[in-house]
Amino acid sequence: MDKLLDKGVALGISLAGGFIATRVFDFVWKKTTGDEAPRVANDEMTLKRALAFSIGSAAVSATVQVLSQRGADSTVKKLRGRLGDRTEV
Predict the structure, then answer these.
(1) Is the dihedral of CA 51, 56, 61, 63 positive or negative?
(2) Half-sphere exposure of 29 (CA within 13 A, CB side)
(3) Which of 64, 66, 79, 82 has a 20 to 30 A CA-CA distance from 27?
(4) 5: pLDDT strictly greater than 80
(5) Cα–Cα–Cα angle for 42, 46, 50, nearest 5°?
(6) Tens of pLDDT along 67-77?
(7) What's the count of helices (H) and strands (E) in the chain, helices before strands?
(8) Which runs of E-coded beta strand occur in the chain?
(9) Residue 34 region, left (φ>0) first, then alpha (ψ -120 to 50), else beta?
(10) Each residue's pLDDT tens digit, 55-67
(11) Are 72 and 57 in contact (CB under 8 A)?
């Protein structure tokens, strides 16, 4: 993806997906644990809870990255199909 359109679409989808995924993960974390999602290092947090949060957030982040890249590729192909060569930068 070396075109300006490709990068812009990928950035937009990634930002939107990351925002939504963060909100969903925070909601699930609060419903599951009863506590707010941690934002900074906390000495009172157990190692087990810190590891669970780290692994969960890393899994969500990796999923968003893969899905946003695939979504961007698909969206750009559709846009190029509709617009033709006018999208060249």
Answers:
(1) positive
(2) 20
(3) 66
(4) no
(5) 70
(6) 888 888 888 78
(7) 2, 0
(8) none
(9) left
(10) 999 999 999 989 8
(11) no
